[in-house]
Write a structure and sequence with these properties.
With 161 residues, this protein is of the alpha+beta class. The chain contains five helices and ten strands; from the N terminus they run αβαβββαβαβββαββ. The longest helix is centred in the first third of the chain and has 11 residues.
Length: 161
């Protein structure tokens, strides 16, 4: 039997002593729609972004749904001059997860985790390794389980044109 993305998430969470709740979620056309379907504010959804370093390695940036990466802040924290969001095929190869399902939990490679400080003290929803599901987890426990670097790495979302 083939292991699903949800299986990998659950197995990794259990190994790290994390209490997660994976819930089914209908397809959503935006982060705001997903938040409504889950009954939470957009800030309660964590975007798990795969970020490529200039040396070819990756990292995870955990960003509240109502914010965006501040490239200048993240570059300064990581100590590099260049970071980028890879194409979705590259992110899939780096994590084993497709866009919209990405999470550090169960990633095929354990990349370093950088979390925005605004996640502290919250129970959040994030990708569950498989489309149609979200994983709820205590952000502090997730941060601690990964030894994540916590800092101000985001800016407010810019209004869409």
């Amino acid at each position: 039997m083939t292991e699903t993305g949800r299986d990998r998430v659950t197995t990794d969470a259990r190994a790290r002593g994390l209490d997660i709740d994976i819930v089914p979620r209908p397809a959503a056309d935006s982060l705001e729609s997903a938040a409504r379907l889950l009954g939470i504010e957009p800030s309660g959804i964590v975007k798990s972004l795969v970020v490529k370093r200039h040396d070819g390695d990756y990292l995870f940036a955990l960003v509240p749904g109502d914010r965006q990466i501040s490239w200048a802040k993240l570059r300064a924290l990581v100590g590099v001059n260049k970071l980028s969001l890879p194409h979705e095929d590259v992110a899939l190869a780096a994590t084993g997860y497709s866009r919209g399902t990405i999470t550090p939990l169960g990633s095929t490679t354990p990349w370093p985790v950088f979390a925005d400080e605004r996640l502290r003290g919250n129970r959040v929803a994030m990708g569950a390794g498989e489309h149609g599901y979200s994983a709820f987890v205590d952000a502090d426990a997730l941060i601690d389980a990964y030894g994540a670097t916590v800092a101000d790495i985001t800016d407010p979302l810019k209004p869409r044109a």
